[in-house]
Amino acid sequence: MPETTPHGLRRLAFGGDYNPEQWPESVWQEDVRLMREAGVTMVSVGIFSWALLEPEPGSYTFGWLDRVLDLLHANGIRVDLGTPTVAPPAWFYRAHPEALPVTREGVRYAFGSRGAICHSSPAYREAAARITTELARRYGTHPALALWHVHNEYGVPVSACYCDTCAAHFRRWLDTAHGSVEAVNDAWGTAFWGQRYASYEEIDPPRLTPTVGNPAQQLDYRRFADATLRENFVRERDILHRLAPGIPVTTNFMTALSQCDSLDYWSWGREVDLVTNDHYLITDGRRTHVNLAMAADLTRSVAGGAPWLLLEHSTSGVSWQPRNPAKRPGEMARNSLAHVARGSEGAMFFQWRQSRRGAEKFHSSMVPHAGTDSRIWREVVALGADLGTLAEVRGTRTVPDAAMVWDWQSWWAQGLEWRPSEDHDARERADSFYESLYDRHLTVDFAHPEADLSAYPLVVVPALYLVTEAAGLNLRSYVENGGTLVVSYFSGIVDEHDAVHPGAYPGALRDVLGLTVEEWSPLGAGESVRITGPAGDSLPADVWTEFVVPRGAETVWTYADGPAVGRPAVTRHRLGRGTAWYVSTRLDATALDTVLRAACEDAGIDSRDTLPRDVEVVRRSGESGDYLFVLNHTADEAKVPLDAPGTELLGGERADGQLAVPAGAVRVVRLDA
After folding, report:
1. Which CATH architecture has domain 402-603?
2. What amino acid positions are annotated as catalytic residues?
3. Is the pTM of this model over 0.85?
4. Of 250-254, 257-261, 506-510, 650-654, where does mean pLDDT reach its minimum?
């Protein structure tokens, strides 16, 4: 069996994408000298090197890569070796132009970027398997090899192709998934608008249509595209497992909800030996550290709670947003250690040395254009030292307080056309619920709706439009057995085929919530309402209202105005030994805190109101001990109470009673046993 951590790495991973092919060999010796100075322990190599490794079909030039890996090994640096299948060479596309993907509108992309691949193409699959096989045979036993890195960021920038090859592949996939054309007709509801199919040959991908296409067909195509990419990963993974046994295989995910929605990472997480993730701050005016924490928690959850690895993030600004601000002094280290607090076994970057040419030449790096006489380099060296000090946290696990139910397939379904309001956004609901939990200083696991939830005293469901019968029963069982559930509006509506559950809304969640919804009444652009609580206080709400009918649930908050005035807005239902809350309108993160405070009381979760806002307190625990990470994202010193004395690892001081954390700083306390 392959390992689940980088082979031979005994410290936290620290380094980045290393692209020596962009530089003359005279620079390589300087690179490894600086890597040693910075405390680099691992680098990613060869991810975009197919054209250099196989300059002509079947002709390989491995000499330069031999020298790179030997040099890294001689300097004690482990290697995450890429299969370069994200960027086929120009000669491949000249021979196989049909392997370039086609858009839904029928436009075929051209060569000249990255990731322009039809993943159903037999020619691409054969060529990818061939280069992967050659790499595995040559480097599978190389002493520097720690990890195989298949492809790069699957689904970015192209997640689906709509060419004729994909159409034939889709038909085969449908036969496997459904078993017959009649089963497809039933699942897709093709009796509507006369869309019935008599044979698979009549079925095409959901290409551009004059009005809205069949939503169930579109949803199945998302599943097909995801499965096709995963098939190609598994094919490369199995070659590597066979020819380089024992070396773990990964591919870098992009779980941040605001960045990538084309893959079902619950399925992908089961296929990799080690879950890895890329994360870049989205500088759109929001609190970027909250999105960072959310992405890290989600990645850890995809890993099943096991340690994972941050394989890419940035030392400072990126290059692909409308505005790309630099990180402030200390922010890089704080971002990196926030990932470590939430389960990462290190902090890797894109990239080691900043490129002089190409599309990402203004993307920050560990060695910037300014060289080593720069703030970034000095912070890189300091971070390397800190990660070396924290090596003992390896193998420990982040301790969660609550869970959030999330399902990529539900997100896909909800994002299709002709929903009740374009202002309702599943990602926005997830962001807001997470932000509210974050501000209550709760560490959050994410969970698939059919997963075992019994370990969590509190489970929130911010946006679960698609709910299978099994998921509905799972959530009911969770509450009956003592759990506290909080569900947001427009959840439980359809089954796995985007068919509305029989009966009144909210379909699969009616029984657990103890209510029905007669009708939705989304609000107009800019409109808002107020809801009134039991003490006469009120909260603002917008986007959505509902005509809720309690059927066992008690009304806690009531619409004070708007279309549903006088009707229940927030309800609470006692079921078995637990409680289920329902929020039928859109509350922002601040207003949600009022509801979640009451739900936390039901769940028996102690209040953490004494902790300062924007100060994270996260615990990792394992055989080596308990570690408390405290990250201060504010401009003022923060004082955090400790429930046990310990040693602050980054400074070496004893900590007892209360921990002082300077503005913008991080402290890590190993608590006494």
Report:
1. 3-Layer(aba) Sandwich (3.40)
2. 153, 312
3. yes
4. 257-261
